[in-house]
Design goal:
- The protein is mostly helical.
- It contains twelve helices and five strands.
- The strands form two sheets. It has a three-stranded parallel beta sheet with strand order 1-2-3. The chain has a two-stranded parallel ribbon with strand order 4-5.
- Helix 7 links the parallel strand 4 and strand 5.
- Helix 2 crosses helix 11 and helix 3 crosses helix 6.
- The structure holds tryptophanyl-5'AMP.
- The site of tryptophanyl-5'AMP has 25 residues, from strand 1, helix 1 and helix 6.
- It is an enzyme of class 6 (ligase).
- Belongs to the class-I aminoacyl-tRNA synthetase family.
- InterPro entries: aa-tRNA-synth_I_CS, aa-tRNA-synth_Ic, Rossmann-like_a/b/a_fold, Trp-tRNA-ligase, Trp-tRNA-ligase_bac-type, Trp-tRNA_synthetase.
- Its main location: cytoplasm.
């Protein structure tokens, strides 16, 4: 089976709809066809200052949500990044192969460091994409299911894999991004020119998977739509409406054309009302199951520890080869 790896940061108390539709939903599908590794990337979550109590809680909330949306620890390897020390170890090696200018060109780093101020932004934020490359390359992943915003980091990962292979001999699989076009960029409900994002979206612009269903329904109903009244898909002219149609299709499995036909002669309000219901029916069981997993943190930790052990078996094999190829002495 081909292998996939992906990760998600535990930096919020809930996944948002962009995380789910852009990435996590595909993770669930891929566990059926691929040898799948998924990690909660807590090392990535400490680049901008954090509270230890909050981080620990959010790491469990992230894992519980992944189980609640359908990841099955029998079918995939679900683990927490910091429990596999090889991630940080390989990252150092890759840091040394990355140009300073190359890392400086990462747009996510540029955006975030501009926001925080160059003096305050951490070196961890700077090397963030290189740690991400280590996550992927350790597992020899063939494909990496992510949203559009991760494309540049994937390119860097491919470059680093090729560079290492050229310098030290074929070691890493060069991974492909696995980006599903329709849902690759879910936009903010209040500002369809930006992606839905935990850092940039206003509370009204973002749907949190674990929110009160009534609250999410309200956000859908007050989403910004476009002038005109006719319902059709046109991301250029009608970005707000098209985003709602994308969400509607993704949550129901219905085709755009079918929806457009069903809403012929109806208004935006009708569509929003129905979508609000679709969304709350979708989110309700996820919310319930997440809370069930969180009610038993000892069991949850056990599942993660078992995943971590499986992950480590793969990661340590790759790291051993890497250390050998670059000329480190064999461990005592
Ligand atoms: P993170 O935690 O920001 O987001 C998790 C996943 O959600 C996707 N995503 C979106 N997709 C569509 N529309 C949106 N509005 C939207 N917002 C977020 C992201 O593309 C991502 O796939 N750097 C990564 C985490 C990471 C990782 C890895 C990913 C660390 N190591 C190794 C893949 C492989 C990140 O910050 O994701």
């Amino acid at each position: 089976r081909p292998r996939v790896l992906s990760g998600i940061q535990p930096t919020a108390d809930s996944f948002h709809l962009g995380n789910y539709l852009g990435a996590v939903r595909n993770w669930v599908a891929l566990q059926e066809t691929h040898d799948a590794f998924y990690c909660v990337v807590d090392l990535h979550a400490i680049t901008a200052g954090h509270d230890p109590v909050v981080l620990r809680r959010r790491t469990r909330v992230a894992a519980a949500q992944l189980l609640a949306v359908g990841l099955d620890p029998e079918r995939c390897t679900l683990f927490v990044q910091s429990q596999v020390p090889e991630h940080a170890q390989l990252a150092w090696v890759l840091d040394c192969l990355t140009g300073f200018g190359e890392a400086s060109r990462m747009t996510q780093f540029k955006d975030k460091s501009a926001k925080q101020g160059a003096e305050r932004a951490s070196v961890g934020l700077f090397v963030y994409p290189i740690l991400q490359a280590a996550d992927i390359l350790l597992y020899q992943a063939d494909a990496v299911p992510v949203g559009e915003d991760q494309r540049q980091h994937l390119e860097l990962t491919r470059d680093l894999a090729q560079r290492f292979n050229n310098l030290f001999g074929a070691t890493f699989t060069v991974p492909e991004a696995y980006i599903v076009r329709d849902t690759a960029k879910i936009t903010d409900l209040q500002d369809p020119s930006i992606k839905m994002s935990k850092s940039a979206s206003s509370p009204a612009g973002i749907i949190e998977l674990l929110d009160e269903p009534a609250k999410s329904a309200k956000k859908i109903k007050s989403a910004v739509t476009d002038t005109g009244r006719e319902i059709y898909y046109d991301p250029e002219q009608k970005p707000g409406l098209s985003n709602l149609l994308t969400i509607y299709c993704a949550l129901t499995g219905r085709a755009i054309d079918e929806l457009v036909e069903a809403y012929a002669g109806k208004g935006y309000g009708d569509l929003k009302k129905d979508l609000a219901e679709v969304l709350t029916e979708f989110a309700r069981p996820i919310r319930e199951r997440t809370h069930l997993y969180l009610d038993d943190p000892a069991q949850l930790d056990k599942v993660l520890a078992a995943g971590g052990e499986r992950a480590r078996a793969v990661a340590s094999t790759t790291l051993r080869t890497v250390y050998d190829r670059i000329g480190f002495l064999a461990p005592a």
